[in-house]
């Protein structure tokens, strides 16, 4: 590990159980296990990763990739990264993803998810989505702008080169087998 990783984070990253399912994150100096995804959450995660990867060669969407963004280690539901910047060695991604997507589970705190997103945005993430399946809405952050909430037929901002996607189409992915 690089010397820029704080000691508590470096110690966390050496723990053997952090890749158990669901993965463990290190946020605000505390190790916490992610919430086990529901059926709709899992379908949405899989289908959105497939949609992104089928529609771009510039980026790669990856499910549950550990990122190291000192002093935290988030594991976004989906991390979207510039293909040319992906490391050639296996392991966690040592930066904030270009696009971070979190899918809120019913028992998850919106504030905790938003804090994780804000930390990544302040460390290089260009775009972040927080998908709330139950409310059928998506919170979107772009760089330093305040978040916007999108619903129904609203077109969602995406990374350069990806086709437009509406909130309703994203929510419909929870039903796709």
Q: How would you describe this protein?
A:
- The mean pLDDT is 93.
- The relative contact order is 0.15.
- The longest helix is centred in the N-terminal third of the chain and has 16 residues, at 39-54.
- The chain has one domain: tt1808, chain A.
- The protein has helices at residues 7-13, 39-54, 110-121, 167-172; strands at 24-27, 30-33, 59-63, 78-82, 99-104, 127-132, 137-142, 148-151, 155-156, 165-166.
- It is of the alpha+beta class and 177 residues long.
- The strands form 3 sheets. Strands 3-4-5-6-7-8 form a 6-stranded mixed sheet, with helices on both faces.
- Helix 3 links the parallel strand 5 (99-104) and strand 6.
- The termini are far apart.
- Pfam families: Uma2.
Keywords:
177 residues, globular, tt1808, chain A, six-stranded mixed sheet, single chain, two-stranded antiparallel ribbon, alpha+beta, 10 strands
What secondary-structure arrangement, pairings included, does this model have?
Elements: H1 7-13, E1 24-27, E2 30-33, H2 39-54, E3 59-63, E4 78-82, E5 99-104, H3 110-121, E6 127-132, E7 137-142, E8 148-151, E9 155-156, E10 165-166, H4 167-172
Pfam family, one: Uma2
Domain Putative restriction endonuclease: 10-168
GO molecular function: endonuclease activity
Summarize the structure.
By secondary structure, the protein is an alpha+beta fold.
CATH architecture classification name: Alpha-Beta Complex
What's the shape?
globular
Q: Please, what is the CATH homologous superfamily?
A: tt1808, chain A
What is the helix fraction of residues, given as a range?
A: 10-25%
Looking at CATH, which topology would you report? tt1808, chain A
């Amino acid at each position: 590990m690089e010397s820029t990783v704080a000691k508590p984070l470096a110690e966390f990253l050496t723990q053997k159980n952090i890749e158990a399912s669901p993965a463990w994150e290190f946020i605000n100096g505390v190790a916490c296990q992610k919430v086990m995804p529901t059926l709709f959450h899992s379908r949405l995660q899989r289908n959105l990763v497939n949609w992104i990867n089928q529609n771009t060669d510039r980026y790669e969407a990856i499910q549950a990739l550990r990122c190291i963004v000192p002093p935290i280690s988030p594991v976004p539901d989906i991390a979207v990264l510039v293909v040319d910047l992906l490391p050639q060695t296996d392991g966690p991604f040592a930066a904030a993803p270009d696009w971070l997507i979190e899918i809120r589970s019913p028992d998850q705190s919106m504030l905790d998810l938003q804090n994780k997103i804000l930390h990544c945005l302040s460390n290089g993430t260009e775009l972040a989505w927080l998908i709330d399946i139950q409310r059928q809405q998506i919170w979107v952050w772009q760089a330093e702008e305040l978040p916007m909430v999108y619903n129904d037929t609203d077109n969602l901002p995406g990374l350069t080169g990806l086709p437009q996607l509406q909130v309703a189409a994203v929510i419909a992915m929870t039903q796709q087998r």
